[in-house]
Amino acid sequence: MSDQEPPTTENVSAPEQEAPTVMSEQEPAKAESEVVAAEVVQEAPAPAVVSEQEPVKTESVIIATEVVQEAPMVVSEQEAPPPKIESGEHDHAAVVEETPMVTNGHDEPQATESVSAPEVPAPVMNGEKEPPAPTPTPPPMESSPKEAPPPTIMNGREPPTTETVGAAELTRMVNCGFKNYTKLVRGKPRGPLLPDAYLKFADKLYNFEFRNEDVMVMAFPKSGTTWVSEIVWALTNIDQLHLMDELGVRDRVFWLEKDAVFSNDRDISTSIEMQRFRELYPNDDPEDGVVLKLAAAEKSPRHFFTHLPPQLHNPDMLNKCKVIYVARNPKDVCFSWYNFLRNLPGEKYKEFEGEFAEFVEGFKAGYILYSPYWEHIQEAWQLRHHRNFHFIFYEDLQTDIMGEMRRLSSFLKLGLGDDQLQKVSELTSFQTMKGREDKLPIIKELQTSFFYKGQVGSWDEAATSLVDARMVAWINENLQGTDIRFTFN
């Protein structure tokens, strides 16, 4: 185990009337001799340091804000040039309503002790007349006064802490359609929304010991996690591909935080998983954890996937484990989440009941488990230059699967030829995986498919022009001053 202290938690009791939290404005900076009457000029953080051997490279963006009452503007003596894409041979030209997007990730607001979501605008239901959708244009990069996110430091960082989501915010979530939300926690300063069961396993997850042979697929939910997990497993088990038709993906790849998400629902564990647990730990209570114990007992090489961001994992993870992060454009992530949740059976698993427009507002407000979306993406993007971290886009897998698999083979130091890669491509195609799921359900008890269409642009099936315009504005706002580019069509 590493020497860092385990995650600590604090319970934040909800006030009777929750005071709004200003998420994007900053107090004016005070100097010893004078107060400058201008909006605060923030500089992007220092480079994220992942290890002493190979620091992450980032670039600073200086954002100049407008002057208030003719006071002098405080800016650095030399502005950094716009950041350049350094993620590979290809460029990600963002497309939002045919307006070129310039970036991905976002400048994150500084967290506060209490959690407050933005007011949810009234959704537009089917059948209502809608005004023509405006053609959104990305705001100029110089105009954002938001603070850039703090650097992600994997070694020597302080363990993350959490706070309980208060009653007022829970009420807003329920009113937005998330009917089954009862007890939730949120990581600080910018961690994800999780069931309170996470608290029981936070220390174990944070101190989980990785090995040099481990491979982890990491992604925000509904970003292609299962697809990439199958690709990576097949690439690294090229001589055992027949097992893909004998064992489900969840029996070959550990969902590392499953104990924390389904800690009280042991009935949804696969029979093979529980069989293994009973054989290895006949006297242990499954409520104390199944997957973490099985993973610790598994021989190398081990395969994992997770929806938790890097900050909630062992700080030593990237010194040993190979991590592949999958990013997908936020429109399709939102629609895929909605489509998945509305098809869950019965009251036990149904998290959302409402219209698509309501769900979109909840997605933007951070009401979805593992939210906020932008913080998740941004933290991973800061780590993209680490030798053990590989950042890929779902949309690139769709358009150039062979090229992306060559890059994965190189990252994993596998040295596979094109004939082998072509075989993996066939076994992990959308139609092949969907057919295999009929025989080997990913989670049998959920009685719903993890695969819908596997296309880019599925958002357009459900979004009205007004809902789309609001989403475009939200995306543009959060892409200011960053350098990741999405493809939407």
Layout: helices, strands, pairs:
Blueprint: E1 8-10, E2 94-96, E3 99-101, E4 161-164, H1 167-175, E5 184-188, E6 193-195, H2 198-206, E7 215-219, H3 225-236, H4 249-252, E8 254-255, H5 258-261, H6 271-280, H7 291-297, E9 303-306, H8 317-320, E10 322-327, H9 330-342, H10 346-349, H11 356-365, H12 373-381, E11 389-393, H13 394-399, H14 401-411, H15 418-427, H16 430-439, H17 465-479
Parallel strand pairs: 1-4, 7-9, 7-10, 8-9, 10-11
Antiparallel strand pairs: 2-3, 4-5, 5-6
Helix pairs in contact: 14-15
Q: In words, what does this structure look like?
A:
This protein is α/β, with parallel strands linked by helices and 489 residues long. It contains 17 helices and 11 strands. The protein has one domain (31-109, 120-151, 208-479): 3-Layer(aba) Sandwich (Rossmann fold). Strands 8-9-7-10-11 form a 5-stranded parallel beta sheet, with helices on both faces. The chain starts with 7 loop residues before the first strand and ends in a 10-residue tail after the last helix. 41% of the residues are buried.
